[in-house]
Design goal:
Elements (H helix, E strand, L loop, with lengths): L2 H4 L13 H14 L10 H13 L3 H20 L12 E5 H4 L9 H13 L4 E3 L1 H4 L1 E2 L6 E2 L5 E5 L7 H16 L7 E5 L5 H4 L1 E4 L2
Antiparallel strand pairs: 1-5, 2-5, 3-4, 6-7
Length: 206
């Protein structure tokens, strides 16, 4: 569980298990990557904040507002003629980038192109969930295998944005929809072998 999303704190999370063998394997990995579990992981103040946040995050009025905010944003984007994954989630709205930019093939990353355009239009930061993140070559043939979906994730920080912020995001998508055919795809300028969606660099295709 991401505590940043569900426990209303700025760091950390929970990994809960009911299998002793898997738990031991995870602890072994932890020692390799971060240190012994007894080293602590999170500061005491963050653990205290998480304890409070877990209680607050279960309050019905908070959850109603949180779900209503994502639902409102998804509906507004849909009203612009742009599809989203339905139903809207509790922490994010997922926009169907392939439908918005059908002229951009998956090899030119329509999700990334939409993310760039949204930032240009309204300084709104989204995250590509598509071929940048998941495409990979077949280990035998070398043929590129692409994911079924090309999405743009709009994660919504809790207790941060108002309805007017959501309206601004919706208006930005409406502007992009009008000129969608003019948007170009992208290619890698740099891509690491692992987790390339975190550190890859791109350039537009001319």
């Amino acid at each position: 569980m991401s505590a940043k999303k569900d426990a209303i704190v700025n760091i950390g999370g929970l990994l809960c298990l009911n299998d002793a063998t898997i738990f031991q394997n995870i602890k072994n990995e932890l020692i390799l990557r971060e240190g012994f579990p007894t080293y602590g992981g999170l500061a005491g103040r963050d653990l205290d904040a998480m304890a409070v946040g877990l209680y607050e995050g279960l309050q019905e009025d908070y959850l109603e507002y949180r779900l209503g905010q994502t639902r409102y944003l998804a509906q507004g984007i849909n009203d612009c003629g742009i599809p989203t994954i339905q139903p809207a989630g509790g922490h994010a709205v997922y926009v169907d980038a392939a439908t918005v930019l059908p002229h951009i093939p998956q090899g030119e990353f329509p999700g990334q192109a939409l993310a760039v355009e949204l930032f240009r239009e309204g300084a709104i930061r989204g995250c590509e969930i598509g071929s940048v993140m998941f495409a990979h070559p077949d280990p035998d043939s070398g043929v590129m295998i692409y994911p079924k979906l090309e999405l743009l994730r709009l994660a919504i920080p809790r207790r941060t944005y108002t309805q007017s912020h959501m309206d601004f995001v919706i208006d930005s998508f409406a502007s992009i929809k009008v000129r969608a055919k003019t948007i170009r795809g992208y290619k890698f300028q740099y891509a690491p072998a692992l987790l390339r969606h975190f550190t890859a660099r791109f350039e537009p295709i001319k």
